[in-house]
Amino acid sequence: MPSYQLNLFADNFQFYLQDEDANGDLSNSWTPAAADNLLAIAPGAIGVGTVRNMTVPVTVEIREDRPEERELWDKVNECSIDIKSGKLVIAGSTDYLPEAQRITVSPGKYTAQIFYGNLGSVSEDGYDGEDHYKVILWPQDNR
Fold first, then answer.
1. What is the DSSP code string of 63-105?
2. Measured between alpha carbons, how far is 36 from 102 in angstroms, rounded to an integer?
3. What is this structure's pTM?
4. DSSP 28
5. Domains by residue range for the chain, with CATH
6. Is the dihedral of CA 1, 86, 82, 114 positive or negative?
7. Of the candidates 85, 72, 83, 73, which has an alpha carbon nearest to the alpha carbon of residue 137?
8. Residue 4 neighbours by CB distance under 10 Å
9. pLDDT in tens, 33-46
């Protein structure tokens, strides 16, 4: 089970995962409801909202089947993403796309669970906190 530990600059209070060939345009997806839910979706892209506009720790795991996550989390979202190219890009919203982290996966549709932890730990000024995020993906056929 591959696991990737990243520190992403969550500029605009978000980071994203997208198929390498998708345009990654989430601008129309960040509706007020999406912002409240900390999740925006567009074809081939997932925008994960954060509670800080700073660098945040993110773990991404690729699994074969639905996880049985036993940790306590503040929030959990679930959605799907089509990764047609076989390359998943993980980046902050202002990262330079050609240099962003890539993960090679089998092309196809994936279910993604997004876990949000320690959301209440952010300092009053919004700069410091122990918030962290985890994304687990697995092939949709393997429910």
1. -SS-----S--SEEEEEEEEESSSEEEEEETTS-GGGSEEEE-
2. 28
3. 0.94
4. T
5. 3-139 (2.60.34.30)
6. positive
7. 83
8. 15
9. 999 999 999 999 99
